[in-house]
Amino acid sequence: MALPKPLITSSPSSAIKMIPKPKSEIRRFLRFTMVGLVNTIVDFGVLNLLAGKLKLQIVPSQTISFITSVIVSFFLSRAVVYPEAGKNRTSLQMTKFIVINLIGLGIRSLMLPWLNRLFQVSFRGIELFGLTSEFLGRNAAWAISTSIVILLNFFGNRVWTFQIQPDKERR
Predict the structure, then answer these.
(1) What is the mean pLDDT of residues 48-58?
(2) From CA 30, how far away is CA 28, in angstroms rounded?
(3) Which of 21-35, 79-93, 133-147, 154-168 has the highest mean pLDDT?
(4) Alpha helices in 1-132 (DSSP H)
(5) Helices 58-76 and 22-47 sit at what angle, rounded to 10 degrees?
(6) Of 46, 86, 84, 52, whose CA–CA distance to 68 is shortest?
């Protein structure tokens, strides 16, 4: 694993080159968001198929949906969000990507049942556009826990998995 370049340099101009360009970071985050949208559709669809239609318990259902979306996410992230990292070893990146996502899965697995119970009680008896309180509660819990994990994933993968350095970014 290569160590990041130090921020202290011999000249002010080389220090300025180390600072990420705001426009490139915004573009990268927009690409991350688009990949995230695809992953969200995969995650949401698999979760609701397993927990809603097949009536599996929520934690195993979300674990399967999460793993499915992680696989899709890795390959899309590598190709679309961090294409400059494509020269690096896929197996090492995949291992780090899985570690970051397992941490996210742990956080989500702890939060989801608690939030699900909270929202099931909060939405009890409410039906919105034909959606049951069970559906509303499960998906509100999923949305909140997933939002937290998204932030972890973006920063964790940018810094550790794909090790994107400002001087290697696309402009």
Answers:
(1) 93
(2) 5
(3) 133-147
(4) 12-18, 22-47, 58-76, 90-122
(5) 140
(6) 46
